[in-house]
Amino acid sequence: MSQAKRVDWAKVRGEFPSLEYWTYLNTATFGQLPRRATEAVNRHFNHRDVFACSDFVDWYSDVDRLRELVGRLIRALPSDIAFIPTTSYALSLLVGGIDWRPGDRIVTLTDEFPNQIYHPALLNARGVEFVETPWERFYDSITERARLVAISAMSYVTGFRPPVVEIGKFCRERGVLFYLDGTQGCGALDFDLSEIQPDVFAVHAYKWMLAPNGAGFMYVAPAVRQWLAPYVVGWRSDRNWRQVDHLQHGAPNFGESAEKYEGGMLAHSLLYAMEESIWMMIETGTDAIERRVLDLAAKAREALTARGARFLEGPHFDSPILAAQFDCCDASAVAQQLKARRVLVSARHGRLRVSTHFYNDENDIDRLSEELKRILRQTR
């Protein structure tokens, strides 16, 4: 019997109280919190009341436990992991730490999230060329002047999934840095960084990782840590920061692990929530989750096609993000009408975006299909 068949998906779904009230097919915008994550936050605040924060240094031992858990999820070492509030922090760290020269090039894909556009585009003033390219010309765009490729694991607009293992190998062979934003997908799809080998991998965990917004992590490869200086420097930057009775005064002595990029206090309550969500994923099985998510996405695609939707075709669209285009109506208006019927999806750049996760089931797709049928009937 396969791992997927052993999972009690109804029991998994029961962990998410919001699903009692909503047909939720919008994880590409926000993931829903499991009860156990909320309970972890409450335990932390109760713990604070009992101990009056006298043991705050010990909270970082819990963070180290989470560092190990994140590494287990993505196949990395705990020393490779730093916790961050957003992925823009990670990309800014990398972009700000490169010694750019006029004529250098940054490459990304079209339909990328603004994170991968805004900061690189600002470097035009320093003579750095920023290239947004369709997939068909992607590899040709990585010329000898390219120094950084910065892409998402899935397009938030179209659901396109670039072959990240192949891209990682291509970049390594040419000495080009590879930044991968896993916010869209990590938690739904299985990521093995030992195969992808990015230079930096960053995830804001509020989507598919089912954590509160403000909880995130980044992987920084050991070779990159040798030259990439911390972007934010604070009291935890010194390698001996745990000796709080005698903190270093003067320039910090940085450690070798990715922890040196954290700088100061962390949002512990959010990280405790993320820890519980990751445990839930590991207990369920990352392979089982990926199969479940993609199976539901395939069913949703069939249902939307039956309602007249069109999709971009080609390789690398096997994705839990579905971008449906309807000729008869405005996607934003349809999304608002569905919301009024307590069916949550979203609209992005003229497409109705439907995104499945492992807490969804076939009834969600049936309800979307029926409500969409009623809405489309009114527009004709």
Short description:
The chain has helices at residues 3-6, 9-13, 35-51, 56-74, 87-97, 115-122, 138-141, 164-174, 193-196, 222-225, 268-284, 286-306, 331-340, 362-379; strands spanning 23-24, 81-84, 105-109, 129-133, 146-152, 177-181, 200-204, 216-220, 321-324, 343-344, 346-348, 351-355.
Name the overall outline: globular
CATH topology call of the largest domain: Aspartate Aminotransferase, domain 2
Cα Rg = 22 Å
Share of β-strand residues:
5-15%
Helix content: 40-55%
Largest sheet: 7 strands, mixed
* Structural class label: alpha/beta
Order of strands across the widest beta sheet? 2-8-7-6-5-3-4
The average pLDDT score comes to: 95
Task: Please describe what this structure looks like.
The structure is a single chain. The protein contains 14 helices and 12 strands. The protein folds into 2 domains: 3-33 and 285-379, Aspartate Aminotransferase, domain 1 (Alpha-Beta Complex); 42-282, Type I PLP-dependent aspartate aminotransferase-like (Major domain) (Aspartate Aminotransferase, domain 2), CATH 3.40.640.10. By secondary structure, it is an alpha/beta fold. It has helices at 3-6, 9-13, 35-51, 56-74, 87-97, 115-122, 138-141, 164-174, 193-196, 222-225, 268-284, 286-306, 331-340, 362-379; strands at residues 23-24, 81-84, 105-109, 129-133, 146-152, 177-181, 200-204, 216-220, 321-324, 343-344, 346-348, 351-355. α4 packs parallel to α11 (268-284), α5 packs parallel to α6 and α12 runs parallel beside α14 (362-379). Helix content is 40%, strand content 14%. The strands form 3 sheets. Strands 2-8-7-6-5-3-4 form a 7-stranded mixed β-sheet, sandwiched between helices. Strands 9-12-11 form a 3-stranded antiparallel β-sheet. Strands 1-10 form a two-stranded parallel sheet.
